Every structure is written in structure tokens, then in C-alpha cells.
Known about the structure:
Blueprint (H helix, E strand, L loop, with lengths): L8 E3 L9 H15 L6 H4 L2 H9 L4 H26 L4 H29 L10 H4 L3 H8 L5 H4 L2 H19 L4 H18 L4 H6 L1 H20 L1 H8 L3 H16 L1 H4 L3 H24 L11 H8 L1 H18 L5 H32 L8 E3 L4
Antiparallel strand pairs: 1-2
Amino acid sequence: MKRWAKPKNVAIERTWFENLDATRFFGFFHVFLAHCFFSNSPVIRDTGTFQFLNAHLKSGFLGLDYFFVLSAFLLTWLGLEEIKNTGAFHPLKFIIRRGLRLWPLYFLLVGAVYIVAVFVPDISSLPPLQVFLLFYANIWMAEQGQNFLFILVFFWSISAEEQFYLLWALVLKWLPKALPWLCLLMMVGSILFRYQYVHENNTLSFHTLSILGNFGTGGLAAWLTFNFETIRNWLRNLSRLFIALLYSTLIFLTVFYFWLFSGVQGTVIEKQVFALLFAFIILEQCFSARSFIKFGQFSIFNYLGRISLGLYCYHGLVLTFATKYLAQNNAFRVFLLNPLIILALTLLLSILSYELFEKRVHGLRRFFYPKINLTKH
């Protein structure tokens, strides 16, 4: 009598790019540097040091642009891998996994703010709660501005991410073959949108269509490297001169951002320029055999990258109180002590939140990865 083996369903193997976690921390740190130097003293604000920092470190939004490119790259690669290994993409499981990654901390902080606002009358007027519950805060801010409680301003990027997740779930499920063309359309469309609204700062900063090219660039980078071994081989054999020029260009354009991208043309193209540079950095870290440094070799940065969502969210909370309660009329405090206090408190809150709360919820994602039946293979 022939015995039939019981079906054995196991989760599919997923590629892990070990050098990318650390880069999340660097993206956060760029955002942090843009916010941590502040003063209400005219004397401090008129110093050469403050003016220099204001001119060269206020481009923290580039850190968010990097997050968008990285997110699109990783999710596109993993989506294509899922299709290859299982024959289909599972959008509901994808949305649940992303929700378990972002929603717990996001809704905890949003809920806390609105509950506290009921009992603290001097909190500035807040946007309608549904703006955050339905993830369209960035669209609301593009129209209404950002003149409300500082911590909530940071959540515009999570709204943009959630909108992308929904779009990409549909694309990977129903239009995977059209993905590269959709990525190109997103890149070109974003440039055209920025040209149309070039003089509307809030729209340029927050509207989904203004940043859509970041997602398109990350998605296209993943599609090209996933499907073409020749491209992976080219990246693997990049010369060190090319790599040095790549990083040098990124640093130069970042440091002198406000000088180089101040005009209409610069404003229109700057996000796409940086998106391409960020994509190359990601690909260089993933595939190059001649990198000067692989960021994944630093365990401390890997860990800080894993808690980067908390770092991003909690530094907004800490800054909300720091700008109100920390002394700002002393150069030592403004340029050294206050930033260190803000960073230390942000790290403490983020580590506690990750270890005691977020990580436990993240573990539930293992139940929502697609599985394959080994008895059929």
C-alpha cells in the first residue's frame, strides 16, 4: 500500500540584503541633523556657525527620499521573488505584513496625541483625526500646510508610504509585466507634476505625485537587477573609481543642495537626480564586489537601522518638547548639548519601544508570508 506524504507547507525563502539595514540609520540621521540645531536667540541665529549649519544641513528631507527609494526597491524585489517562487502575488498578506511593521507605533503615537489634546487645551489646533487614520495626511498638508503640532508633521511620509503600498499591491497582483513601464511613468510624471506646481512649496514637499519618482526609481532598480544577470554582473564589477565618484557626487550635491537646486529647473529635477543616486548606492551595496565599505559589517548600525522607524517617530516627539523646554540662548547648548540630549532621548525611547513593543508585533508577520507545498515540488 502506497503511503502519501502529508502536504508540507513552508514559507518561501526571501532574499535579505544584509548591507541595507544600516543605511536606514544614515537616512534617519540626515533627517535628525536637519532638525536638531535650533535657537530662539537672535544672537545665536546670526552667528556664522548657525548660518553654516542652516545652509548645509537643512536638507533632511533627502533622508526621506532615500527611504522611499529603498522601500520601493526592497518591496519590488520581494514581490517579484514571491511571484517567481509561488506563481502569484498575495496582496492582502502583503498589506497585513506592512501594517504590522508600521501601524502599531504609528497608531500608538497618533492616538496618544489626540487623547492628550482632549485634556491639554493649549495644544495647537490639530488636523482632523481621519487625516491620519486614512493615511492622507500628506495630501492634507499639501493643501493646508504644516502649522500644527510638530510630532504629527512627521507622519506625512507614512501616509505617502501607505499609498504606495496599496498601489504596488495592485500592480504586483494584476500588472506585474507592466511594472517597468509604470515605474518610468511615475518618474516622468513626477517631474511634470513638479514643473506644474514649481512655485507651491507645500505641494512640492508633501504631495504624493511630487515624490512618486522616488518610488518609481526604486522599483525600476529592483526590476532591472532581478531580471537581468548582465546588470548584476556589471554592478559586481564596478570600478572603485566609479564608486568613489558616485559617493563624492552624492556628498557634494547634498552639502551644496540649496545653492545647486534653488532655481526652477533645479527644483523640478532635484528629486529625480537624488533618486537615481540613491538607487545606485543601494545597488552598489547589494551587488558590488569592490565596495570601499559594506555598511552591513557594522552591527551597531544594523541595529539602529532596524529601529529606524522608532528613531524617526520618537525624534519628532522629543523635538516637540525640546524646542519648548530646552535653553536656546547659549552656543554650547545649541550646537552640542541640546543635540546630544535629543539624540540620547530618541535612542532611549526607540530602543525601549522596539524591544518591549514593536518587535513583538513584528513577529506576527511570519504568519502572513506566502508558503509553498513541498510535496508538489
